[in-house]
Specification:
Rna Polymerase Sigma Factor, Chain: A; Arc Repressor Mutant, subunit A; 2 domains
């Protein structure tokens, strides 16, 4: 039986990381399965409470990533349906506002990236991880992650502006402002 200290430590861990972990998982799996993955991650954390590193957030993200990888086969069928629905949604996007057109361009550019590039960008842009933490999630060195991030940014920028036109100037300025992503 666990001590009261362990139970309180686990409650604090859950309270401090649940929302971030849930957002991380929800972007990668159907929303109705996200909480199941998160509960599996916290069950693993509970079992391995004495082995947790000091910075638990990247460790939890890595466990979530591995948990999701174990369930990929069933999710691929549902994801194929999601992709078909996204195509229909993009085709019916309103054509009046420039911002809507930019979002459609960004969504199309995002979908053109490989899954690995999307994951690298998402870890820093959406999950707010440092390069060191993201490298822990992916199981690689910080320098390797920084290189992958740089290449993914370049591919996204190329997908947004393949001909070098000025139509994606707003995206270019956003990416230049985000150069701090690789700083730990």
């Amino acid at each position: 039986m666990r001590r009261a200290e362990d139970a309180e430590r686990f409650r604090a861990l859950h309270r401090d990381t649940f929302a971030d972990l849930l957002r991380f998982v929800e972007r990668r799996v159907p929303p109705d399965e996200a909480e199941d993955v998160v509960s599996t991650v916290f069950m693993t954390a509970w079992r391995r409470l004495d082995e947790l590193p000091e910075d638990t957030r990247p460790w939890l993200f890595a466990v979530a990533r591995k948990t999701m990888a174990n369930q990929t086969r069933g999710w691929l069928r549902r994801r194929a349906l999601d992709v078909r629905l996204m195509r229909v949604e993009v085709q019916h996007a309103p054509d009046g506002a420039g911002a809507a057109a930019d979002r459609v361009d960004l969504a199309a550019a995002w979908r053109s990236l490989s899954a690995a590039d999307r994951e690298v960008l998402a870890l820093v842009a959406f999950d707010g991880l440092t390069a060191e933490q993201a490298a822990t999630v992916l199981g690689c060195r910080r320098s390797t992650f920084a290189m992958r991030l740089s290449r993914a940014r370049t591919r996204l920028q190329t997908a947004l502006d393949p001909g070098g036109t000025a139509s994606t100037a707003s995206f270019s300025s956003v990416f230049k402002e985000q150069q701090s992503w690789t700083n730990a």
